[in-house]
Amino acid sequence: MNNLEISWVFLEIADLLEIKGANPFKIRSYRQASRLLASLDEDISVYWAENRLTELPGIGQALAAKIHELLDSGQLTYLKELRQEVPAQLRQLLLIPGVGPRTVHTIHEHLGIANLEELKKAVSQQKLRELPGLGTKSELAIKGALAKMGRVSVGLPLGEAATVAYELAEAMGQLPVVEYIEVAGEIRRREEFVHQAILVVGARLDLAEDILATFSSAPYVRKVINASPTDITVLLGIGGLKLRLVVVTPSEFPTQLCYYTGSKEHWLHLVAQAKKHQLELTPHALIGKHGPIIIETEEDLYRYLRLEYVIPELRAGKEEVLSAAQGTLPQVISLEQIRGDLHLHTNWSDGKESVASLAQAAIERGYEYIAITDHSQRLRIARGLDARRLNKQIEEIKAVRPKFPNLTILAGIEVDILADGQLDLPNELLAKLDLVIASVHSGFKQDRETMTKRILSALRNPYVDILAHPSGRLIGRRPAYQVDLDTVLKEAQQLGKIMEINSSPERLDLNAEWASKAKNLGLKLAINTDAHDAQRLADMEYGVSVARRAGLEAEDVVNTWPAVRLKWCFQSIRG
Ligand SMILES: [Zn+2]
Ligand SMILES: [Zn+2]
User: Fold this and answer.
1) What is the pLDDT of residue 401?
2) 534 C-alpha to center of ligand 1: Å?
3) Pair 496, 459: CB distance under 8 Å
4) How much is the pLDDT for 155?
5) Which domain range does residue 97 map to?
6) Looking at the CA of 345, which ligand is closest?
């Protein structure tokens, strides 16, 4: 057993103890030991052999004895006992996205829930929302996750899949035998939906068996789908994501990584490009007249193929290899170029943070500006702002500004577009704000003509600057509403209005295809997180990857501009 495998054993013990409602200190000591082992540079068996286990921070006699037993026999009696005490059906609940061991403990203790069926029943009877530490929001999240589990699972949205894959890659990367590791495939290309996650590992092939064995013991692996000596695919409990790990020789890593990143069409274009220059490209090597060419990085590979480097997001297999050959690839936007976030919710409506704490979080991300854009009155469920409360919020923003001299805090609103195309707040009020975002949150079932007219009339309001989540889709949950987006984009271009790329992983709206159309029409875009708490400011990277796939450059995206230019832009929209 290696460090990582023992780390995962301790993680499982911590989960089981938490389900049982054991002493929190005990649970924490297993979690800490798990983290320690996952990040330990030296092989734990060295400490063991030298009798130094208890020198490690947090490893007392009891934990040392467990490590001893695991290294000695490859098994742990304590874990076996725990697994018997916590029934398998109860443990299975951990595989529901968003359900952790504490939740399992709570629902088991308070409602006696012991399996999936009972959980579904309790959710439908709205019993979870009354429980300590849960609430309506958690209940609805679990309800959504359960509904998804019912379907034949074909994958996960990018946000969830990427989190799992990068966490696992980081853990596996700690193994001393792993020389290189990279997430490839759809995740590396930032496709919005991931059918299969692929990890490519560079390591000695005679060690592949051990690496694969470790990998298949990872948390939440439900079963091995297929396996060869260097290639394994497992099904994860979480959302039914297929996760593949391929071990390749370190010297082949760059070409293999490129091959497994795809897309298939992109790779075929590279093979053709190689041929054009009397080279042969295979996943194993780039071969010239005098044999294989030494390739140290993916960048090398593109250089030898006489191509500009094509970032993974652009490897769709369309025109990008042609453009790379001509040197005309776009200088796509990067996350570092983002200067602020223009769509944020606070605890004035359905967000979690105060204006000040969002401002603090923005400073920590290195932003120059943010816009506070809470919901308007019609969204009662979100405690949307009416005129009185919006006026009060504007006062609060004014009061907070002096505390953050290096941050421009814009006062804005996400105003509802009502069913008839009117806005949810009067123009006199909107005129007081620095910017106005308009969006549809109701009446999704309107026919195409009505919806298109509705959005057009909102865009024509002189105070509207940005149209948020223009298609209204929720990935895997709700399709886009019926709307003629072509017409909307053209009108927006005429009016000088800005289209949003909403970065929330469940939205990604506009998507890459429409964002690219918007750019070609000459529109400007804003990449916003629509964050309802400070952590979600990090979703910016997902919006940026949509923009990168769309080939957007910094100039196309208004929140890469300095604050002065941005303010001037909003003013000129009002005319
Ligand atoms: Zn919204
Ligand atoms: Zn919003």
Assistant:
1) 98
2) 17
3) no
4) 79
5) 3-150
6) 2
**Do 95 and 237 contact (CB within 8 A), yes or no?**
yes
Q: What integer pLDDT is reported at residue 202 of this predicted model?
A: 98
Non-local (6+) Cβ contacts of 429 within 8 A are 387, 390, 391
Q: Which ligand is nearest to the CA of 468?
A: 1
Residue corresponding to tokens 């760059």: 254
ipTM above 0.85, yes or no: yes
Is the separation of the CB atoms in 257 and 199 below 8 Å? Answer: no
Residues of the chain with pLDDT under 70: 149-153, 238-239
Using alpha carbons, list the distances in angstroms from residue 193 to 8, 69, 140, 197. Answer: 28, 42, 22, 10
Please report the pLDDT score of residue 367 as a whole number.
98
Q: What is the CATH number of the domain that holds 377?
A: 3.20.20.140
Ligand in closest contact with the CA of 341: 2
Which ligand minimizes its atom distance to the CA of 438? 1
CA neighbours closer than 13 Å in the CB half-sphere of residue 556: 27
Q: CB-based contacts of 376: which residues, under 8 Å, 6+ apart?
A: 384, 385, 386, 390, 413, 414, 415, 416, 423, 424, 425
Residues 70 and 197 in one domain: no
173 and 290 share one domain: yes
> Do 419 and 562 share a structural domain?
yes
Tally of structural domains, the chain? 3
CATH classification of the domain holding 224: 3.30.460.10
In the prediction, which pLDDT does 575 show?
81
Mean pLDDT of the chain: 94
Residue 201: enclosing H or E segment and its boundaries? strand 196-202
pLDDT of residue 151: 59
In whole angstroms, give the CA distance from residue 309 to residue 338.
22
Nearest to 230 by CA among 199, 257, 252, 209: 209
* 344 alpha carbon – ligand 1 mean position (Å): 10
